[in-house]
What does this fold into?
Amino acid sequence: MMLLVDAGNTRVKWAVAGPGAAPGEWIAQGAVLHADLDRLAAAWAPHAQAFTRAIVANVAGDAMRERLAALLPVAPTWFVSRPELAGLRNRYRDPARLGADRFAAALGARTLAPGKSLVVATCGTATTVDAVSRDGDFLGGMILPGLGLMLGSLARNTAQLPQVDAGFKLPPAFADNTHDAILSGCIAAQAGAIERACALLPAELCIVSGGAASQLAPALGVSHVMLDNVVLVGLHAAAPFLD
It folds into this structure.
């Protein structure tokens, strides 16, 4: 049995995969905020004795790596970007500098939609919008502040604009009040970046994932699917190719 862990900037996501399971077919899964990291041991406890592997993508720094290493029930394989893995070729200028989560997300997207030109948008603390060619080349991408950071920056750096939290109701494009105008503008900026990437590739499919995906996906005017935890899917797909 295998434990998959994606340590992002705000949350740590995890999944448990049984022997022979296809990527994305999991026995259990969950997520905790960084502040609640100690809850992971209890969440993993029902399966801990059966774990033979743990594969971890960590973009949250050395302190998070140390904390996770102490919590994991088995010695982990730390997932890192590399020039090629499982048929995905990394065309970043310096392949090792590509964030492990972005490489895993691209691998997960290609695993589920092979042979298609893809835009992979992960919408979390930051929003990353990456391109994968039909032939399996990771071409690079865009990084922009996530929806929450955009909303917060307006409240912090202006004199009179309020703090707005992203809701589940999409506001009108031309809002008739300040609260909705801020939300509409920030959602349009996020959706616009994703749609521009889709047009430039051009993409046959856009895969949208991350904590803010449910707020952004309804605003997209391109063909897309929502996929929770695409990074974990990529880690699962990578497992047979990792030592």
Remarks:
- The two ends are 16 Å apart (CA to CA).
